[in-house]
Amino acid sequence: QVQLVESGGGLVQPGGSLRLSCAASGSIFSMGWYRQAPGKQRELVARVISGGSTSYADTVKGRFTISRDNAKNTVYLQMNSLKPENTAVYYCNAFVLTPISRDYWGQGTQVTVSS
User: Fold this and answer.
1) Mean pLDDT, to the nearest integer, of 90-107?
2) Which pLDDT score is estimated for 99?
């Protein structure tokens, strides 16, 4: 069983920065962040796999950076130049391969970008 503990959301002005953290227990293949804005579907923001490869949504490339500390089993999302349209609940995701392949989700953390 994998447990995910998120932190770092909050209220920030447009152009500001926030860093989200997600600590995981267990053996993880990939970790990432998704977000869900009101009335919209959950979407991938960024993901990092165990080898270090990363992928980003086109809308956040150049502004968001995902990183992973394997020793701490923690993933970070540094969000810079935030825009009001980035307002959403951000969810940490972990994908494991054993004993069965499946996703785990954090409880979500609210990010609000507003002046």
Assistant:
1) 93
2) 87
